Amino acid sequence: MANKYVGQRIKRTEDPRLIKGLAHYVDDIKLPDTLHVTFVRSVYAHARINGVDTSEALKLPGVVAVYTGKDIADKLGPVPCASALPDLKVPDHRALANDKVYFVGHPIAAIVATDRYAARDAVDLVMVDYDDLPAIIDVEEAAQGGPVIHEAFGDNIAYKLTAGEGDIDAALASADHVLSQRIVHQRLAPIAMEPRGVLARYFPGEEELTVWSSTQIPHLLRTQLALMIGIPENKLRVITPEVGGGFGSKLNVYGEEALLGWIAIQLGKPVKWIETRRENMQATIHGRGQVGYLEIGCKNDGTITGLRYNVFADLGAYHQLLTPAIPTLTGLMLSGAYRIPAIQINVTACFTNKMATDAYRGAGRPEATYVVERGMDLVAAELGIDPAEVRLRNFPAADEFPFHTATGLDYDSGNYQAALAKAKEIIDYPALRAEQQKGRSEGRLIGIGVSTYVEICALGPSQAMPAGGWESATVRIEPTGKVTVMTGASPHGQGQETSFAQIAADELGVDLNDVTVIHGDTAIVQYGIGTFGSRATAVGGTAVLIAIQKLKEKASKIAAHMLQADASKVAFEEGKYSMHAARAAGATEASEPVVPVGEAPAGAIPEPQTEGRTSVTIQDVALAAHLAKELPPDTEPGLSATYFFEPKNFTFPFGTHIAVVEVDRETGDIKFLRYVAVDDCGKVINPLLVDGQIHGGIVQSIGQALFEEVVYDEQGQLITGTLMDYALPKASQVPLMELDRTETPSPVNPLGVKGVGEAGTIGATPAIVGAIVDALAPFGVKHLDMPVKPEAIWRIVNQA
Amino acid sequence: MKKAINLNVNGVPYRHEVEPRVLLVHYLRDLLSLTGTHVGCETSLCGACTVLVDGQAVKSCTMFAVQADECSITTIEGLARNGELHPVQEGFWECHGLQCGYCTPGMIMAGTQLLDRNPQPSAEEIRHGLEGNLCRCTGYQHIVEAVEYAAKKAAS
What we know:
heterodimer, A: alpha+beta, seven-stranded mixed beta sheet, five-stranded mixed beta sheet, B: alpha+beta, 5 helices, 5 strands, about 35% helix, globular
């Protein structure tokens, strides 16, 4: 493959429509006679429903229908959970509540009206008769007892799981020091800037249902909606238009999506629901929500002997698609970047009267990384060894890969020393430590936090995934020579229309602008899995590459036939098939496009002129393949190939982040002095896009470290119900990030890419918290829980 | 009781009868089909709905259409002139100032007004000036570079 585009900072081909305001998100799609849907949602965290009176709402002009849980009870199947764990308790989860509500925001009734204002007015006219029940909010209390949410289960424990390899008791007993720490991963809200939205239309004649949804997984959604609604999958089309961010929150199947499809069938008119931000805070999945107890054992030289993590996972009231699986990912990544002979995780996953937790950017891995990295800092502090040095002493060597961990993984490739060394060099680590010491003597509170993370990406081998871990691509060269790539990965901001076009353009030797990448329409694109788990390029991009290689096998045969040469004598280079001998003889080659744009005579497609030529372009071949007049024997007409790529392993990107902060003694505020990130995501297709992914991830980490927290009060009321109360990082609150890279190709796929979508949210949080703890070390601080607020810091500084 | 309003949007005069409670953002999106202006929070916090009303950046999710009576409005669709991108739009493209693109129209409108007020802002001033606009994808760094690009371009 000629690298004309791959590896270059190519600006995105999807941007013009977005910066002109001409892109179409779900709410921008307008169909005639569309009805608008709103939801009546529970105001209680836990209550029995005695009745729902919809009569007043139905009298309101414009209101067409109101549906309650009873209306759909035997018509719409349960909301699916794809996680299969031993002895997992799976509550019956319906799109609308029936007898009980389990969290604030739990949908009770759906209102359909002719305009969005009437639909909103009618929400206030639905009378719900509740009997308020005591709620269980704290996950550790839920593990002990308290009010039972799903009465049939007898308690609130959804599952317990123990995993890990090695003799953990012996490993901790053999340690010179065993350090313990309670660690909180607060609940977070993903907050894609575009809330969820669904538009559904049913054609009763054709019996075809089309659902437009802001989702990361159009094909998986189609399968699940077909099952829930009870219509044939091949009569259901899911279209994912522009998606305004997901971060895992749209890697799901929600009751609202199925209900809208079902209502469209009932009413025979298009129906649209656009989630409000308040609904989004209440009823779109949350992330994190773990409270755990770490024990880490080490020798006097800093060598880690073992790690145990007993964690309580706050699942919320129901399982969404992957809810129970998230804590298992935490268990998988507890070895971090280190050689740890024995690891054990004990998960107690509990129901609480809150929205479900599920995959939010990182999905279990930020929790693991935070636990391990906080552990390394505790070891460093205990032994008086520099935190960077403690980490270095526990890295596997670069030649030890594939590296087997005590969590049962085989890391594909790595050179953790190189990334750490580069980050230390960029920031001039020794000088920084000296400056910190000098600052301390002057009363300044400067802290340095180091995080050397590993993440698990390119999800993943199908054996380890609930619903297929492969990805698909179809590549077609049209008669005019334009290249169409159809990917089953459904990007939503990652820029795959550009990065996949870069792969295709290089592999085919065509201009980048001649490649169009189509995604997110199940009627057009072959079955695919979707974009999540930093998988799109490593798995989906590889599918594109191999589909093209398949296509070229056929194209080379056609080219040889056109050149009247033996196929072994024809070589492909820069978009052309040419004969070795002819090229060596220096014969001139015709290279004009067969059909110049706008010049094709009406009603006639010119045939490629090949007589006397020593080369043909891939476009020539495409035209010949479609005209099919002179094909080699036993060759199918047309020029397209489809490939489903099944990865043999995950990939394991890694890196070093170093945060430098200064604490303001007067206010407890944090100021970033430096932020350096050296990330290794394997081979890079587009450095510009990779930088963007890292930047965004780090800032979401800053959000978790300093600002963000979904807060429910003791009654289960959501206190952070708007963006006024849930604090997203703003432009003025985040530092300039200094990025660099090392490049260790992955052996798992031929592109050598590893994935980068979640690196920032995984690597950055421990660096930031570590820096704050380091700044406050003179006060004896060893750990702080997130979000680390100025108030907590101020109390430490001013009560000392 | 509907009320007649006259306004100019992207250089085109409009007259409509609207309910007094219709939000400006819904007027633009639903009646004029100018769907480039987005709704992200309904509470003036995220800035996805930012438009220029008589040259001032305004969050159109918390302004009634009737309040814009007799006003001149610029939305993202009206920013490019004669097929030429506005320098701020160009900056967002050149500097990868967007990912999912949802906050982008509001961010570009806010960036445009920022440069109207302060043609050569420092990075810190840009960050401060964009505080009313939230982006969840980019971490803001490329957005700051995009506005710097536009400032530089306008000065050249």
